[in-house]
Design goal:
- The structure holds two protein chains of two kinds.
- By secondary structure, chain A is α/β, with parallel strands linked by helices.
- Chain A folds into two domains: 5-237, P-loop containing nucleotide triphosphate hydrolases (Rossmann fold), CATH 3.40.50.300; 249-498, Rossmann fold (3-Layer(aba) Sandwich), CATH 3.40.50.
- Chain A contains 18 helices and 20 strands.
- In chain A, strand 11 (258-267) and strand 12 (271-279) form a beta hairpin.
- Chain A starts with a strand and ends with a helix.
- Chain B is mainly β.
- Chain B has two domains: 1-48 and 228-346, no CATH class; 73-205, 6 Propeller (Neuraminidase), CATH 2.120.10.
- Chain B is built from six helices and 26 strands.
- The longest helix of chain B has 10 residues, at 239-248.
- The chains are: A alpha/beta, B mainly beta.
- Chain A binds chain B through residues 255, 258, 261-264, 275-277, 279, 309-314, 316, 319-323, 325, 479-482, 492, 495-496, 499, and chain B through 1-2, 5, 12-13, 15-20, 22-24, 26, 204-205, 230, 276-277.
């Protein structure tokens, strides 16, 4: 059978540094093809070449047997190749329906007609998104759904998904994979990038693995298992190290002093009478589905959001009731929040690694000089880069140029430069490759061993179960269960999160 | 904003917050799974005299085994204490306190006793009510509790601290020359210097009303006789409603903490609920609960034993370490139980 897309010996270099080296890749008609690799392995670059976002430096790409070279994503779309990006490319000020039909406007448009059509279309995809809602008001998961809907709407014969499920709930993921199967049956070929290896193993027909820009392995998914994939991705077996640890009661850290007590904290309908405690020297894992109020609760604690003015409950940090007006007050008290949306809230992407680390110290008022000292900046940066093993040419490299894993390390280092006593990690390994996950996990464990109070909010159950010393499960705006990792099973945690 | 909150609270109302039961106080069903030692009517204070365990039940002092009456009094017994040399101190609901039959007067609400260094230490819960009217003291928001030292040789009484919200248990912390007292209505343990003085927090923000504290091998045992309940806390803030309620209703129907789980159809919320993760959860916070906590030497909780909303052994008022286990009285559950030390949450 003739491949829909065939790439031969494709190379793409940025300033002479190859991101993709001599890669051969084939996508067959009607197949689901998973593209795996660590961050910086070249997956996104390879798919961007397919979708016309970037041009290959050398090599050849065939589409339905014809040599093509797309100059823009629009040209690729006209040829039937659509890409759903990791960072959504929707227009925030337009409605969901307007975004789906963007570029297809007529001279005179009847908005009601667009809404009805969009409603029917979204329902056919099983996506519960209001077509009249402005995109700016939607959460990350809903935006992702709109992005997927837009790609499907363009009736592309090749759809490329870059981490499509990172922000979806388990229920939404099921819908998404059912949708992928439906598209596959209608003859659409799908490429999807994912860091959740189970998704690739369970849903893909074929798997291609890249490492350091080169193709390592490609073959039917049935020939792979989790360890084989991880071995190919990182050249070593990390899977067991990260997620298959058997935990006994003696493995868990003993609880230290109670550092934070949250009592009946409420914020609108998102956080409702939420009460729990956090202890020093322990990792408290927080699990909950999207909308369970877990992120919002911890944003209240760290001064990013405000709890209700009337009867909003109480936050007691180190025995003292606190109500932070701005995050810097929380930072100065020793609370840091490492965001789940690192690109938007985590770092200054056009600034250097050193400047980012230094900004953390500045926010906490921990710099020794009253004016910006470059010597101090580089001293702080050198220390944290070494401790976190940030892989970059030097500290002057801009953060935007780093891989996801290294960007996340910068976000963590920027927070830890503030010498916190309570560290809140929100999805610390989202969009991070397996190698970096292991390093980040080791670092989080080290923080707890050093006596800090650590909170890890995660949607990934194995992460919560393997990292936490106690697990709190959130549902409908409050903590509903506390489960010991020794007795916890994925089913038990999920049951508590849903029922 | 924090410094403005007390002022703003005058206008917007103070938030009713209940500390969470987590960490060392994470709920379990250890009390309900405990072995029953003896069924008794409202067993209250348990003490050791020599090798015997004695407990108070109504107006009587009884042996645990054999089940015999040791002594009987004219009013319900509210507290017991035994000195190292075997002297027995008894407090009654009418305010009488006796040490080996010698009466010491001047107390209205003796709730806990201890004999140490030739002196008797007395928790006087309130100046206003008898011990059995503790719910009334709470709903009147009295803060008239006090701790006294009575020299057993001279009979001289010394007030060590006053203004307490129902002093309801005490332990002598000899190493730190202080007395640690349960202050029930402020949901905390406070420390008072042995010679008297200002009370300072030792264990604040408890999620339940603390009562008696007993020394154990590696620390102390603390009984908490009823849970903090959001509805009760709310009623305590609503003065007009509270005063009307106390004036017009029989005290057994007040919205107030309780020692025993209600079985009345008038309280369907405490009896109704859902089972989640195999655990019964009431639709509303219950008015009664069973909770015994193990504290370390610095009075911080290290483990706890619970009887949840649907449990039997509520209203725990006294516990003692005995032969590697904990013997505890469930005044609300009408039983004395034996808890294996390995049970519970730690």
């Amino acid at each position: 059978m003739q491949p829909v897309i065939e790439m031969k010996n494709v190379t793409k270099s940025y300033r002479g540094v190859p991101a993709v080296k001599n890669v051969d890749f084939t996508l067959r008609k009607g197949e689901i093809h998973a593209l795996l690799g660590e961050n910086g392995a070249g997956k996104s670059t390879l798919t961007k070449i397919m979708a016309g976002v970037v041009e290959a430096t050398s090599g050849e790409m065939l589409h339905n047997g014809k040599t093509v070279s797309f100059e823009s994503p629009f040209e690729a779309l006209q040829n039937g190749i659509a890409m759903v990006f990791q960072e959504t490319s929707l227009v925030p000020s337009l409605t969901v329906a307007q975004n789906i039909y963007l570029g297809e406007e007529k001279f005179l448009n009847r908005l009601r007609g667009i809404y009805i059509a969009a409603q029917q279309f979204l329902q056919s995809l099983n996506f519960t998104v209001d077509p009249t809602a402005t995109v700016a008001t939607l959460g990350a998961a809903k935006r992702q759904m709109v992005e997927i809907a837009r790609a499907v709407h363009h009736k592309a014969d090749v759809i490329i998904f870059d981490e499509p499920t990172a922000t979806l709930t388990p229920e939404e993921k099921r819908h998404f994979f059912a949708l992928m199967r439906r598209l596959q049956k209608s003859g659409v070929s799908i490429v999807f990038i994912s860091h959740a290896l189970e998704e690739a193993l369970n849903h893909a027909d074929r798997i291609t693995i890249l490492r350091d820009g080169e193709l390592v392995e490609s073959g039917p998914a049935a020939e792979f298992d989790r360890d084989a994939v991880v071995r190919a991705m990182v050249g070593r077996t990390l899977s067991g190290e990260i997620y298959n640890r058997r935990r006994t009661a003696s493995d868990l850290r003993k609880r230290g002093k109670q550092i934070l007590s949250v009592r009946d904290v409420s914020m609108g309908s998102m956080v409702r009478n939420n009460s729990f405690s956090i202890f020093e020297g322990q990792i408290t894992g927080i699990f909950g589905l999207v909308g369970s109020g877990r992120t919002e609760t911890f944003k209240i604690i760290s001064g990013i959001y405000k709890r209700d003015f009337l009867r909003g409950g109480e936050v007691v940090f180190e025995g003292k009731p606190v109500r932070y007006v701005v995050p810097v007050h929380a930072v100065r008290d020793g609370i840091i929040y490492v965001t789940e949306d690192r690109k938007l809230e985590g770092f200054f992407e056009t600034m250097s690694i050193a400047e980012n680390f230094y900004s953390g110290a500045l926010a906490a008022g921990l710099t020794t000089s009253k004016v910006v000292s470059y010597a101090e900046m580089h001293e702080i940066a050198a220390g944290w880069s070494k401790r976190l093993d940030v892989k970059a040419i030097n500290d002057n490299a801009r953060v935007v140029e780093l891989s996801g894993g290294n960007q996340q390390k910068v976000v963590i280092g920027k927070g830890l430069a503030q010498r916190p006593r309570l560290v809140i990690f929100d999805e610390p390994t989202r969009g991070v490759d397996v190698g970096a996950i292991a390093e980040i996990h080791r670092f989080i464990n080290q923080l707890a061993d050093d006596g800090l109070a650590v909170v890890v909010i995660s949607s990934y159950l194995p992460e919560v179960m393997n990292l936490s010393d106690r697990i709190l499960v959130c549902r409908q705006g409050r903590v509903v269960e506390e489960i010991s990792p020794v007795e916890a099973t994925e089913e038990m945690i999920m049951f508590a999160a849903v029922h | 904003m924090t410094f403005l909150d007390p002022i703003l609270d005058l206008f917007r109302g103070k938030a009713v917050t209940i500390p969470p039961m987590d960490g060392a106080l994470k709920p379990n069903t250890a009390l309900d799974e405990a072995e029953v030692v003896v069924a008794a009517l409202a067993p209250d204070n348990i003490v050791r005299r020599g090798d015997d365990l004695l407990y108070s039940s109504g107006p009587e002092i009884r042996h645990i085994a054999p089940k015999t009456v040791v002594a009987s009094y004219g009013a319900d017994i509210t507290a017991l204490a035994v000195s190292d040399d075997g002297k027995l101190a008894v407090a009654l609901d009418d305010g009488t306190v006796t040490v080996d039959g010698r009466e010491i007067d001047g107390f209205t609400c003796p709730t806990a006793l201890a004999i140490h260094g030739g002196a008797l230490f007395v928790c006087n819960g309130s100046d206003q009510v008898k011990p059995s009217a503790w719910a009334s003291d709470l709903m009147h928001r009295n803060r008239s509790g006090s701790v006294w030292r009575v020299d057993l040789a001279s009979g001289q009484r010394t007030k060590l601290a006053g203004g307490l919200g129902f002093a309801n248990g005490l332990a002598i912390d000899e190493a730190n020359s202080r007395i640690v007292v349960s202050e029930s209505w402020r949901h905390r343990l406070v420390a008072i210097p042995m010679a008297g003085g200002r009370a300072v927090d030792v264990l604040p923000r408890l999620p339940a009303y603390p009562s008696r504290i007993t020394p154990a091998e590696d620390g102390y045992l603390l009984c908490l006789f009823a849970p903090l309940n959001r509805l009760v806390e709310f009623v305590l803030q609503e003065d007009a409603y509270r005063l009307d309620m106390m004036r017009e209703m029989d005290s057994q129907y007040w919205i107030a903490p309780s020692l025993s789980p209600a079985s009345s159809f008038l309280e369907p919320l405490q009896n109704g609920g859902v089972v989640s993760m195999g655990v019964f959860k009431p639709w509303s916070p219950s008015r009664s609960y069973g909770l015994v906590a193990r504290l370390d030497r610095s009075f911080q909780p290290i483990a706890s034993y619970h009887s949840r909303a649907n449990g039997r052994f509520h209203g725990m008022t006294s516990a003692i370490a005995h032969e590697g286990a904990i013997i505890a009285t469930s005044k609300g559950g009408n039983h004395i139980i034996r808890i294996a030390a390995a049970e519970g949450t730690s």
